Amino acid sequence: MSGRRKTVRISEAEWRIMNVLWDHCSEESDGLALGEIVKIITEETDWTNTTIRTLIIRLADKGVVSIDRRCGVYRYKPAVPKSDCIQEEIDSFVARVFNNSPYQLMASLVKEGNFSERERREIIDILNNIH
C-alpha cells in the first residue's frame, strides 16, 4: 500500500461495524452514538451491546474509527476511507492467493466470472482507459 497508512487487518465482524459507519456518517457529521450503531446492527444480527462496543473499541485501537468524547455521549465515525480498507483487503488477498500477481487475479475473474453484458462492457472500458 504505497503512500497510504500502515496495513490494518479488519475482521469480518469489524467490517459490519465499519459498513454501518461508512453508510451513515458523512465527513461533516458528528458520527453515531453507540445506541444508534446497536439499533442498526441488531436489525441484522443477534449481537449484544457489549459485543458491538468491543468491536468498536478494537477498531478505534486499530486507528480506523475515531471517537468524539467532547459531549456526554461518545460519537463514533470512520477515521479512514472505505476505499483504503478495500484496497488493503485486495492487496492481502492477491498476495496470499495469487502470489502478488494482480494479473492472475484478473485472469481468474475473467475466466470464471459470470458477467452480464453491461458488466463486460464496463470492464472493457476500464481496461481501455488504463494509463
Count of alpha and pi helical runs: 6
Shape: elongated
Q: Describe the strand arrangement of the main beta sheet, using strand numbers.
A: 1-3-2
Which range does the strand content fall in?
5-15%
| SSE succession | HEHHEEHHH
Mean pLDDT: 91
Distance between the termini: 19 Å
Give the biggest sheet. Answer: 3 strands, antiparallel
* Radius of gyration of CA atoms, rounded to a whole number: 18 Å
Given as residue ranges, the uncertain stretches (5+ residues, pLDDT < 50) are none
Question: What would you call the structural class?
Answer: mainly alpha
Q: Please report the total strand number as a whole number.
A: 3
Mind explaining what this structure looks like?
The protein has 131 residues and is mainly alpha-helical. The chain contains 6 helices and 3 strands; from the N terminus they run αβααββααα. Strands 1-3-2 form a 3-stranded antiparallel beta sheet. It is elongated, with a radius of gyration of 18 Å. The two termini are 19 Å apart. The model has no long low-confidence stretch (mean pLDDT 91).
List its traits.
131 residues, mainly alpha, three-stranded antiparallel beta sheet, 6 helices, 57% helix
What can be said about this structure in brief?
The protein is mainly alpha-helical. The protein has six helices and three strands; from the N terminus they run H-E-H-H-E-E-H-H-H.
SSE inventory with pairings:
Layout: H1 12-24, E1 32-33, H2 34-42, H3 49-62, E2 65-68, E3 75-78, H4 82-97, H5 102-112, H6 117-128
Antiparallel strand pairs: 1-3, 2-3
